[in-house]
Amino acid sequence: MKTKAIGFDYGGVIGGIGNNFTESICGVLNIPKEEYREIYFSHNYLINTGKVSTWKEFWPIVLDKLGKRNKLDEVLKISNSVTYSYTDFDQLILSYISDLRSRGYKTGLLSNATKEVGRILRLEGLDKYFDSFFISAEIGLQKPDPQTFELLATSLEVSINNLIFIDDAEKSLSTADICGYTPVLFKSFEQMKEEVEKLLA
After folding, report:
1. CATH number of the domain bearing residue 189
2. CA-to-CA dists, residue 19 to 47, 82, 132, 153, angstroms
3. Report field, pTM of the whole predicted structure over 0.70
4. Given pLDDT bands bounded at 50, 70 and 90, which one contains residue 1?
């Protein structure tokens, strides 16, 4: 099927926080990354789908599970600083997105993120690079739920079979076969661009 649209994740692809966040949190909590990730990723759907609205509501849930509620103030400080430093956009990717649009491809953003992050990204003008712009907490769904990709394709007015989606998390791409879009696992800008251009050729 001919590609008509390209979708992008935000964190880890266009911008985001990198690994320093996890390292900082684990340092404060004095626990292994594996233990932290197991609890965090089994609960992050709460904030990514808007079931809780703020990090101030979210972190006590995670810290209670980890037995680290006494570290709440320190964790909130790290979390709040990260939210507002989330807009270090990769200019190479933004230029590439603009190039794709100039060549007639539709572009969309679909990110597992909070409403606050969505607000900040729009204030920074990121939405102007996309024909559709979806934040999980705003739509009440998160990747890899097939409905999120169906929503993106529908909003872009393309068949999901005509959609490429780029993400740095294998889990987020795990339903590609069920959905019908073409996944590209992001490892670097150069690798991503090479794979996408091969698919567009």
Report:
1. 3.40.50.1000
2. 19, 11, 28, 30
3. yes
4. low
